[in-house]
TrEMBL record:
Pfam families: XdhC_C (PF13478). This is XdhC family protein. Residues 77-218 form the XdhC Rossmann domain. It comes from the Bacteria.
Length: 237
């Protein structure tokens, strides 16, 4: 691999940005394509499909063969609230392959004793997310039931292109949440992306069952990226 391409790929990895190492099989030349880069001609759809699926492979375009080596950031799940649901969700997320972290300024809840193997931030979401920005490969689940904690995180998620945004609460609770988010300047189209009540509808009642519903919906939403129209990726890049 060209050392310049390797350096560029490492920069994209550190920034949690998706990239493809494109190799012309005919002459061996490499180039790095970042998500959202304009790609002219028939190669464009192949590149967009590769970003959506996350699968590497060969594309034959205009009589030439290219190998697309896809590098996607590892999916991340940010949970707002160090509650019982989060305790059940943490091992499920790990098994499913998601890097999970929890944000909750309530130090009585956000303790290493309750979450021994989880990245934990006992700070306000807006402070944490300024230092650790959200991105399209991050899902956000707000489960504190406290607007002072949940709302800033939801607003950040909706303006960062997160692949999943969910919030705990009844439909009545969510209706009030919608009005608060509108006051923060979010549009109806943005707010409509929130999954509320959170998780797949499996009749979940206990914290563990709700956690199952959440991780199932997170996985379903992330995998559904492959089924999106090709233009969707360019709009969210």
């Amino acid at each position: 691999m060209d050392p310049f391409c390797l350096k560029k790929l490492n920069e994209e990895r550190r920034a949690r940005r998706a990239a493809i190492l494109l190799t012309d099989i005919g002459d061996g030349r490499d180039r790095v394509i970042r998500q959202g880069d304009p790609i002219a001609g028939a190669l464009g759809p192949a590149v967009r499909t590769a970003f959506l699926s996350g699968r590497s492979g060969i594309a034959d375009v205009d009589g030439r063969s290219f190998f697309l080596n896809v590098h996607l950031p590892p999916p991340r799940l940010v949970v707002i609230g160090a509650v019982h649901i989060s305790q059940a969700l943490a091992p499920m997320a790990k098994v499913a392959g998601y890097d999970m972290e929890i944000i909750d300024p309530r130090t009585a809840f956000a303790t290493q004793e309750r979450f021994p193997d989880v990245v934990l931030h006992a700070e306000w979401p807006q402070d944490v997310l300024e230092a650790r920005p959200l991105d399209p490969y991050t899902g956000v689940a707000a489960v504190t039931h406290d607007p002072k904690i949940d709302d800033p995180a939801l607003a950040a998620a909706l303006t960062s292109g997160c692949f999943y945004v969910g919030a705990l609460g009844s439909r009545k609770t969510h209706a009030k949440r919608v009005e608060r988010l509108k006051l923060l300047g979010l549009a109806d189209e943005q707010i409509s992306r929130i999954s509320a009540p959170i998780g797949l509808d499996i009749g979940a009642a206990s914290p563990a069952e709700i956690a199952v519903a959440i991780i199932a919906e997170v996985v379903k939403t992330f995998r559904a990226r492959e089924l999106q129209p090709l233009q969707q990726l360019d709009r969210t890049a």
